[in-house]
UniProtKB/TrEMBL annotation, chain A:
Cellular component GO terms held in the UniProt record: plasma membrane
MF (Gene Ontology): heme binding; heme transmembrane transporter activity
Locations listed in the record: Cell inner membrane; Membrane
Keyword Transferase: no
Protein name (Swiss-Prot/TrEMBL): Heme exporter protein C
Topology of this chain in the membrane: Multi-pass membrane protein
Species for this entry: Arsukibacterium ikkense
TM stretches of this protein: 21-43, 63-84, 91-113, 133-149, 161-181, 201-222
One of the GO biological process terms: cytochrome complex assembly
Family assignment from sequence similarity: Belongs to the CcmC/CycZ/HelC family.
Stored InterPro entries: Cyt_c_assembly (IPR002541), Cyt_c_biogenesis_CcmC (IPR003557), Cyt_c_biogenesis_CcsA/CcmC (IPR045062)
UniProtKB/TrEMBL annotation, chain B:
Protein name: Cytochrome c-type biogenesis protein CcmE
A UniProt-annotated Pfam family: CcmE
Cytoplasmic side: 1-8
Membrane topology per record: Single-pass type II membrane protein
Domain of life: Bacteria
Amino acid sequence: MFKWLDPYAKSETLYHLCGKLLPYLMVSALALLLLGNIWGLAFTPADYQQGDSYRIIHIHVPSAIMSMGAYAAMASAAFVALVWQIKVAHWAVLAIAPIGAVYTAIALITGMAWGKPMWGAWWVWDARLTSELILLFLYLGVIALHGAFSDRQVGNKVASLLALVGVINLPIIHFSVEWWNTLHQGASITKFAKPSIDPSMLWPLLISILAFALLLLALTCLRLRTAILVNEQHRPWVRKLVGG
Amino acid sequence: MQPRRQKRLFSILLIISLIAGAVGAMLYALQQNIDLFYTPTQLVEGLGKDKVKPVVGQRLRIGGMVVPGSVSRDAVSLKVRFQLVDIGPTVWVEFEGILPDLFREGQGIVAQGTLLAPDLIQASEVLAKHDEEYMPAEVAEAMKGIRHIPPSQANFASGDSSSGSSYSKPTDKPTY
């Protein structure tokens, strides 16, 4: 069924595929990021209760959604890496981890900046905030665990296993606002009902979410290419490529 | 699928489902501790199957909607008293300090403090809980009848304690 994917397990093919995709992803991500954020931050109407403070949603929500999206992608790569024992999938796990960690940090920091004026507190140990913080620790854990082993093969395996196990946190983050009493509000757009956000504010937000997703892909391609070159530096095709 | 891959697949699925089960059981056991706050109903009627009521003197958080018309402010200090409700009984909250911007009647809040009586909390911190609805002022006015007045155009009533009591009556409608 997945036979057509087989060539991409080869590092050289994947390197060239990423190289081909990278400019398109990067240009579209940056263009949409500029469009969505400028529209959202400067040209949408102010919220009826929060005034201009609500505008942080245009950075907070895309980074929060994509911090979870990145984790799902990283865990999928870890699953493929462990079951099919594909090297490039291990490298993909480590390519995604720092990007996801930064997205999570952005979500936490912008959330705190919003929480202070709106809630009256920078931080509250409610279920949503705590589980998102655990997500950050999972990302950092994957990076640290990989670095903790001098045998790179073992490090890859253990890091991928942690990435895979941590996937349990994703439904907890998403449903935390429904399962428990939290200070964090419920979902505005990621639910099956009509979004509880006005269309004039929703469109720039959706564009920003798409932009963050494309940026994640672009940065993953970039980092994966570097990882392939570093790990395969003794292969003839790499030597030929870099002219060494 | 090769038998070796199959074996790895099953062992990974087994590890994940075991850990998911363990985490699930842990969260279930900790359910009451993960809740950030008591609702007024839980405070008055008790929590969970055993109807555990918090004891007087206990530090806790209470979350609910500010009952419209219940907010009374002290004219000479920052003391404020208001009632909270969810779906059942109401409880009183006393607080001295600056309330968050989003505090208003009909708005959800979370207060942290000490239980003075079974239905009275002396709060040391009041946080506003925002809901998930976002809309521009004009839409809110059309849908909810809430009028937005920018702070620059608002004229704040000052020293308006003609009712004689030490608590002045707040305006009926939230202004923005």
